[in-house]
Amino acid sequence: MKVIAINGSPKREGNTFQALTMVGNELNAAGIEFEILHIGHKMIHGCIACGKCAISKDEKCAIESDELNDWVPLIKPADGIILGSPVYYSGIPGTMKSFLDRLFFVAGSNGNFFRHKVGAALVAARRTGGSAAFDSLNHYLNYSEMIIATSRYWNVIHGRTPGEAIQDDEGAQIMSVLGKNMAWLLKMKAATAGAIEAPKGQEKVFTNFIR
Predict the structure, then answer these.
(1) In angstroms, rounded to a whole number, what is the distance separating the alpha carbons of residues 23 and 11?
(2) Cα 26 from chain centroid?
(3) Does the global pTM surpass 0.85?
(4) Whole-angstrom Cα distance, residue 194 to residue 200?
(5) Which domains does the chain have, with CATH numbers?
(6) For helices 94-109 and 68-75, what crossing angle results, to 10°?
(7) Buried b (16+ CB within 10 A) or exposed e, 83-112
């Protein structure tokens, strides 16, 4: 089994990285492969709502000016996905949002290939705004019918300078528990794969409301 973590921070080894590593250490201890994909320092175009990924069905975005189409085949096979982000103005950075909007649009337009994977989100904050940013990340997991791993508090760790989050004892415990819970979910899902039939996916119903 393998978990891919997305590091949406521009700092390769900042506090978001430290938090992801804490989770990853628990996954590794449980015998689960773990890899961090750093995208926060890249120039990533926002979704332009062209809908071409839904027409082509080739698991690719029509925008080819960045590396998103190279990342999709790396992320899709993973059994679990973690979204990690710093906090910008009580939200996630624009680069991370551009990446997630397009990644999840491609996934949803091509058979919803994140459906029933195990997902988790976490954020690193200097002081506040963590809950709002954490909520933003969870929207992607919820929309995609993912199985969401949780911890014993909201998945927020605190620190300002790179590496400072290690001193947040409660935050470190949150990440450790998250890793253990995610490993358990992944193993439970694998153990019951042949015994319990998963609910069949349904064609999405689209409605519009006007006055």
Answers:
(1) 18
(2) 17
(3) yes
(4) 15
(5) 2-191 (3.40.50.360)
(6) 60
(7) bbbbbbeebbbebbbbbbbbbbbbbbbbeb
Read off the pLDDT of residues 1-57 as tens digits, 9 standing for 90 and up. 999 999 999 999 999 999 999 999 999 999 999 999 999 999 999 999 999 999 999
Q: What is the pLDDT of residues 55-74, one digit of tens each?
A: 999 999 999 999 999 999 99
Q: Are 37 and 6 in contact (CB under 8 A)?
A: yes
Amino acid at 119: G
The separation between CA 12 and the C-alpha centre of its own chain, rounded to angstroms, equals: 17
140 neighbors 8 (Cβ within 8 angstroms): no
| Signed CA dihedral, 91, 97, 100, 106: sign only | positive
Query: What is the Cα–Cα distance from 132 to 123, expressed in whole angstroms?
Result: 10
Tokens of 55: 């027409």
Q: Maximum Cα–Cα distance for the chain, whole Å?
A: 56
The residue type of 205 is V
